[in-house]
Amino acid sequence: MDFHENAFFLDERDSIIYLSFSGISRVIKIKYPSGAVMSTYGNLYGDGQNTGAALSNMAIQDIFHSLADNTMFKRQHSCIASKDGGLYVYNNNMQSYPQDRINKKPQVPQIVKLKEVEGRDHKASVVWTYDCIPQEELLQVSGGGGNVMELADGSLYVSTNAPYSRLALINTNKELLWSGILEVKGSGTKWNNGPCYRSSIIEKK
């Protein structure tokens, strides 16, 4: 099973590193430079989830898939600390089991914002969400990928991977400030939605 570390963010203000593992839908909060784990967002191993050699490969796969099911995010692809002490995560919201991705209605990719709850020992909850794709435009497939950036004015730059390939600027009131589709030249006069695994915006100083 691939834990798939796919995002890394250093919060220089608070000396914290966030590590994202999409394979198990988990984000780990680490104190820098000590390396001490401060918190884990996502599911943790239970008593019956020992992935030792005594288990079959199928049983281990079932454990990893169950760990990837949580109510905060699924198969996330980006994380970045917000200016007000929260954490933005690009949530692909993909079903954990491959067969579920085919048989169930696809879930909308989202931006979720987590904030730790005071007095709960670094436990976090979802305080804000934004649907990147309208329900009526959802497809049965997902390219994964995607990311979110918080800009200097507090607005968010969001990019989704193919087949959507949508780029957008939004504010925290969920108002769309700008949007576009990344396209690549196909054969003849045809243009196709292009891959957008991760993209960035360059702000003027």
Layout of helices and strands, plus pairs?
Blueprint: E1 5-11, E2 16-21, E3 26-31, E4 37-41, H1 57-67, E5 78-81, E6 87-91, H2 98-103, E7 110-116, E8 124-131, E9 147-150, E10 156-159, E11 166-170, E12 176-181, E13 183-185, E14 191-193
Antiparallel strand pairs: 1-2, 2-3, 3-4, 5-6, 6-7, 7-8, 9-10, 10-11, 11-12, 13-14
Characterize the structure shown.
The protein has 205 residues and is mainly beta. It has two helices and 14 strands, in the order ββββαββαββββββββ. The mean pLDDT is 84.
Order of strands in the sheet with the most strands? Answer: 1-2-3-4
* Secondary-structure element series: EEEEHEEHEEEEEEEE
- What level of helicity do the residues show? under 10%
Strand percent estimate: 35-45%
Mean pLDDT: 84
Per the principal axes of the C-alpha atoms, what is the gross shape? Answer: globular
State the distance separating the first and last CA atoms: 43 Å
**Tally of extended strands?**
14
Taking the sheet with the most strands, its summary is: 4 strands, antiparallel
Specify the number of helices: 2
Enumerate the spans where pLDDT stays under 50 for 5 or more consecutive residues: none
| Rg from Cα | 18 Å
Structural class: mainly beta
